[in-house]
């Protein structure tokens, strides 16, 4: 579909790009400094979790379920913290290890485990010629960074409206033994906001990998992060695996980073009992035990899944108007021009925006000149290499509503100008 600028005659296009340039110049003259780059909760959201800090005092009992949180012990985490995270993920607490304050850290550790020790006795990846990971794209840049850091070849797989392109996933996973993993954010995916369909989850659970040490890295970072009462339903992949009796396929991750305090909450990994035993071969070398005091604060504050869900409803009150403003501003500014498409997620932290081919780097650079920092163009693709140079990740959570509105006005104006410029250049 041609953009509206491509359908204009030369004179009209010249007039229009001049007008669009004037709009951008006027915005630049405002001297804005706005940041819509990273998916951080706003101060108003984080403040909602301050009462978590009040649940422990020097007078508090630090013993929980017979475990002394103030001392070494319970390397898999406080039993009550394992129960809480198991309730959140709807898995068996015995299949959960709670450790550390960052799920990304656990993902890094598991890739490290595969490299140094090997998955379940398989040859350590450090001894293999090539190791590949599938990277649904657009996707989460820090996932791609972990595997890139270890020298893994990151292979992009297109995201669709129902999850990754499963025909391609099945073909690559089932025929190529060097494919050892796939990064997935199955609910409110970063950045598209897509929740994987039941069929996608069933196809993941039904994979017959060519490599015995292949695992799905199922990062359920946004498991309780719906914006509306009607939450997206994600089929529980471990339930599907249990039906088929094949549970050694998935490592599931989550954390409270966007529930309470980013980087200062609790994180967990869920896996089959045999996979957990395998993981312990590395994790029990790495540490004596993890931070059980923070775990205790979380379980004293959150009595169970319902309490987490109630807390997240308060978060959603703050976040929902921002997502609705994104949808409104983009619709008002760009609908009908055929210059961009974008997602309208019902949860998570991001909106995925696509401009015309060859536009993303220019839009991001132009926005920066006008005073708006966006996530770098290409960040949503492995190696920063978006083949169409079209995708931009919008992170609406951190700015205030007013700042967000201004930043979106800039994005809209720059998208239109770049689309006009591209149409003009194609004729020159
Ligand atoms: C999909 C996804 N996973 C993990 C993280 C980071 O989580 P943590 O703070 O638990 O390392 C983020 C943060 O934006 C994310 O979007």
TrEMBL record:
Keyword DNA damage: no
CDD domains xref list: AAT_like
Record's keyword annotation contains Iron-sulfur: no
An MF annotation (GO) of this entry: transaminase activity
Annotated Gene3D superfamilies: Aspartate Aminotransferase, domain 1 (3.90.1150.10), Type I PLP-dependent aspartate aminotransferase-like (Major domain) (3.40.640.10)
Keyword tags: Aminotransferase, Transferase
Domain of life: Bacteria
Protein name: Aminotransferase class I/II-fold pyridoxal phosphate-dependent enzyme
Organism of provenance: Kribbibacterium absianum
Highest classification ranks of the organism: Bacteria, Bacillati, Actinomycetota, Coriobacteriia, Coriobacteriales
């Amino acid at each position: 579909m041609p953009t509206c600028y491509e359908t204009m005659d030369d004179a009209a296009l010249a007039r229009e790009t001049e007008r669009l340039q004037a709009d951008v110049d006027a915005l630049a003259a405002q001297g804005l400094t706005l940041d819509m780059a990273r998916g951080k909760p706003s101060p108003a959201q984080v403040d909602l979790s301050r009462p978590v800090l009040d649940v422990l005092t020097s007078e508090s009992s630090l013993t929980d379920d017979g475990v002394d949180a103030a001392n070494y012990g319970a390397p898999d985490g406080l039993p009550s913290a394992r129960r809480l995270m198991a309730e959140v993920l709807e898995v068996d607490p015995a299949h959960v290890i709670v450790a550390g304050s960052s799920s990304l850290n656990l993902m890094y550790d598991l890739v490290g485990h595969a490299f140094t020790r090997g998955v379940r006795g398989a040859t350590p990846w450090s001894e293999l010629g090539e190791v590949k990971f599938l990277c649904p794209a657009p996707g989460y840049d820090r996932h791609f960074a972990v595997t890139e850091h270890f020298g893994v070849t990151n292979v992009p797989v297109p995201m669709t409206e129902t999850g990754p392109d499963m025909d391609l996933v099945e073909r690559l996973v089932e025929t190529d033994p060097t494919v050892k993993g796939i990064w997935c954010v199955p609910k409110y995916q970063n950045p598209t906001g897509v929740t994987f369909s039941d069929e996608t989850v069933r196809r993941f659970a039904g994979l017959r990998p060519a490599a015995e040490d292949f695992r799905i890295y199922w990062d359920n970072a946004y498991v309780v992060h719906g914006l509306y009462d009607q939450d997206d339903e994600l089929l529980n992949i471990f339930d599907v695996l249990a039906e088929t009796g094949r549970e050694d396929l998935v490592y599931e991750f989550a954390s409270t980073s966007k529930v309470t305090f980013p980087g200062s909450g609790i994180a967990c990994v869920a896996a089959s009992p045999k996979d957990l035993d395998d993981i312990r071969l590395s994790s029990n070398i790495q540490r004596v035990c993890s931070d059980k005091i923070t775990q205790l604060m979380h379980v004293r504050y959150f009595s169970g899944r319902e309490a987490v869900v109630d807390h997240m409803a308060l978060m959603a009150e703050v976040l929902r108007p921002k997502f609705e403003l994104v949808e409104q501003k983009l619709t008002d500014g760009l609908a009908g021009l055929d210059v961009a498409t974008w997602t309208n997620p019902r949860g998570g932290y991001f909106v995925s925006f696509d401009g015309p081919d060859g536009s993303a780097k220019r839009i991001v650079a132009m926005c920066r000149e006008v005073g708006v920092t966006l996530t770098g163009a290409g960040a949503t693709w492995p190696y920063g290499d978006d083949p169409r140079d079209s995708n931009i990740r919008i992170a609406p959570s951190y700015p205030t509503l007013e700042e967000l509105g201004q930043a979106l006005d800039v994005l809209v104006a720059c998208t239109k100008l770049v689309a006009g410029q591209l149409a003009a250049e194609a004729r020159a």
